[in-house]
Amino acid sequence: MKIVVCIKQVPATTAEKRYTADLRLDRASAESVINPLDEYAIEQALRLAEAGAAESVAYLSMGPDSAAEALRRALAMGGDEAHLVTDDALAGADEWATAKVLAAALDKLGPDVTLMGMASDDARGSLVPGAVAALRGLPLLSYGSELSLADGSARIRRLTATGYDMIEAPLPVVATVTDQVGEPRYASLKGIMAAKRKPLETWSLGDIGVEGGSLRGAALTRVVEAKPPEAKPPTERVENVSADEAAAKIADWLAARKLI
Amino acid sequence: MSNDVFFLAEFADGQPARSALELAAGASELAGQSGGAAVALAYGPGAAEGAAGLGAAGAARAVVLGSEPGPAISYAAAAAEAVKAAEPLALLAPATPNGRDLAAALVGLLELPAFGPVRAARIEGSTLRTEQATLQGTVITVSEPADGAPQPAVVLVLANTFTPTEGGSGTAEVSEAPAAEVGAFGKARVAESHPAEAAVVNLEEATVIVAGGRGVGSEAGFEPLHELAAALGGAVGASRAAADAGWIPYQLQIGQTGKVVKPSLYIGLGISGAIQHRVGMQTAENVVAVNKDPDAPIGEFADLFVVGDLFQIVPRLTEEIKRRKG
Fold first, then answer.
1. Is residue A58 classed as helix, strand or coil in its secondary structure?
2. Which residues of B touch A225 (CB under 8 A)?
C-alpha cells in the first residue's frame, strides 16, 4: 500500500505578496511555506503508515526549484521520499495544467492512494484533486474528516448539510482531507536531520512524459488585471458607551442601511 | 460551439438549492450578454420533477442528470456528455463541496479552463471575464479564457454573487441527459448515512449571519446569538475555535477550512478576526463586530466595531430589533 501526498508551496499567510509585470504572483518575493491545509493530508498519511495500513509515504509537488524546501520540510515530518516536477514551461500554470502534470507524475508513481489537502491557501479553487482523478480515471473521495483503508477500499467520513456520510471506493483512489483529521505534527530535530538523507528527486516535464507543447503555455486561462481590493471606508468605532447605547447604535446603523 | 451559459442546479429534498436559483439568475444575465440561453444541469432528489420550475428562475432549458441522493460527482459522466454535446460558452458551478467536485471532474474529463471562486462574472463581446479575490483577499484578479481555449469556461461562483429572480414565471424545456457510462466516479458510493438529530441550516445560503467565536465561551453562550439571528431572519455561524470547542457543529464553521460566506450582513460576536476566519467572510457586504478587546483584529476591517460585552449588548439589540420591526 503506497500513499503519495501532493503538496503545494504557497506564500505564508502573513507574507507581503507582489505580482510580476506579467501578472503572476512573484513567488520569489514572499516567504513560503507548505500550504497549511496540505499538512493535514501529510498528517493523515503518516498516521496510516504508523498504524500499518500503508507501507510507504511519498510526496509530490509541482513548482519552482525552491519548492524543494517544502518537500524537505514534509520529509522532516515523516515519510520516505519526495519528487518535484519543475520546468520553466510551467510558470503560471492554471488548475488544468497543474492537474495534467500531477496526473502524469502519478502515472509514473502508481500510488494506491493519492492524498491532497482540501484547498490551497492562495487560490482556493479546490479543483485540482477532482481534475487529477478525472484525468487518471480514478474515483474521488473528497473533504474527508478522516480516511481509513481496509480490504482494498478507502473510506472517508464526509460532513453533509446536517450530519455525515461514510463514502467508500475501491483502490486506487484520489482523496482529500480537511483539518479535522488531527493536528499536524511538528518536525523534530531528529526528523529534520533524517530528512536530509531521504531521496528527493527532481523531474522535468520530459521525465514524466509530458510534451511542453501539449500544455499550451501552461494555462487555458489568463489574468488580464491584478489590482488591490477596493478601499473600504474606515471602521466606525463605538467605545465607552452603555450596553443600551451600544445596542441602539447598532440598530440605528442597521436601519440606515435598510438591513432591518 | 454555442453562446449558451450552463449552470449546475442542485436539488435536495425535492427543492432546488438556493445556489441553483442564484446561478439561474446569473446564467440568465450572462446569456443575455452573450445572446445565448441559460441551461440548467439539474441533479439530486427532486431534480426530475422540479427542473421545469427552474424556468421561473431564469433557465430556458434544463437537462436532468439524475435524481438520486449521494455525492454529486457521480453525475460527472452525464454532465460531461451534456456539456460536450452543446459546448456552451460558460458553465457556472456553486463554490460548495459538491459544486467544486463536479466542476473539477469536468475540468479533468473535458480539459477545460477553470475560474474561481469568483465574486463577479460577465460577458464582454463574446469573452467571459471573471473577478476573484486571491491570496487571502490581498489581490483582486480579473481573468478570461486564453486564446483558443476550449469551451465552456468552468466558473466556480461564490454564494450571493447573483440574486435569485423574484416572482418570475415560465417553464424550462426539460430533457434527459444523454446516456453515459458512470465511469470511475461512479465507484464511490455512500456506505453509511448519518443525518443529524437537529437540522442545521446551510450557511452559504444565508443573507444574514450572526457568528460567534471564542468569546462566546460555551454552548449555552450561543443562545443569545440564536435569538438575535432569529430576530434578523438569519443564521448562526462560528469561528473554528467555537467549532473545535464543540459549542456548535462544524457545518456552521466559517473560514479557511469551513464555509466561505458572502451575506449582506455579518455580525461577529466574540470573534477576534484572525486571517483564517477572515478569508471565509471578507466578501460580506456589511460587517458589524462586538468584542471586549479594543485591539481585536476584526476592529481593523469591520464596518462598525463596538467595544463591549456581547452578553450585555446582544440581548438588548435583539429586543431593539424586535421593537423596531413591530
1. strand
2. 141-142
ipTM of the complex: 0.91
What the block records as the C-alpha cell of A21 is 509585470
Burial class from Cβ neighbours inside 10 Å (0-12, 13-18, 19+) for residue A153 reads middle
Task: Provide the domain limits for residue A213.
Answer: 2-218
B1 touches chain A (CB under 8 A): no
Q: Do the Cβ atoms of B70 and B101 come closer than 8 Å?
A: no
Nearest by CB to A137, from B116, B184, B196: name it. Answer: B184
The answer as to whether B195 is a domain residue is no
The answer to whether residue B121 sits within a structural domain is yes
Q: Are residues B174 and B211 in the same domain?
A: no
B149 and B173: one domain?
A: yes
- The average pLDDT across B89-105 equals 96
Residues 6+ apart with CB under 8 A from A245: none
The C-alpha cell at B291 is 468584542
Last residue of a domain, one of B158, B187, B216: B187
Nearest neighbour of A251 by CB, restricted to B135, B154, B317: B317
| Number of structural domains found in chain B | 2
Predicted TM-score of the model (pTM): 0.91
pLDDT tens track for B232-271: 999 999 999 999 999 999 989 999 888 888 899 999 999 9
Number of domains chain A contains: 1
Distances (CA, A) of A170 to A49, A160, B56, B75: 19, 22, 42, 18
Least confident of A39-48, A228-237, B314-323: A228-237
CA distance A46 to B35: 53
Tell me, what CATH number does A9's domain have? 3.40.50.620
Range of the domain at B211: 203-325
B194 within some domain = no
Q: Which of B247, B265, B239 is nearest to B317 (CA)?
A: B265
Q: Is residue B80 part of a domain?
A: yes
Give bridge partners of residue B286 from the DSSP assignment: B265
- B11-25, B86-100, B168-182: the lowest-pLDDT one: B168-182
- B183: closest CA of chain A, how far (Å): 8
Q: Is the pLDDT of residue A106 over 90?
A: yes
What's the rounded Cα separation, in Å, for the pair B114 and B102?
12
Output the domain CATH number for residue B18: 3.40.50.620
Q: Is B182 on the interface with A (CB under 8 A)?
A: no
The C-alpha angle with vertex A55 and arms to A51 and A57, in degrees rounded to 5, equals: 95
Q: Tell me: do B148 and B27 sit in the same domain.
A: yes
pLDDT digits (tens, 9 = 90+) for A113-167: 999 999 987 777 899 999 999 999 999 999 999 999 999 999 999 988 778 999 9
B161/A89 Cα distance (integer angstroms): 35
Report pLDDT for B279. 86
**Predicted local confidence at residue B142, as pLDDT:** 95
The 10s digit of each residue's pLDDT in B169-216 is: 899 999 999 888 888 998 999 999 988 755 677 788 889 999 999 999
Which residues of chain A have a CB within 8 Å of the CB of B183? 137
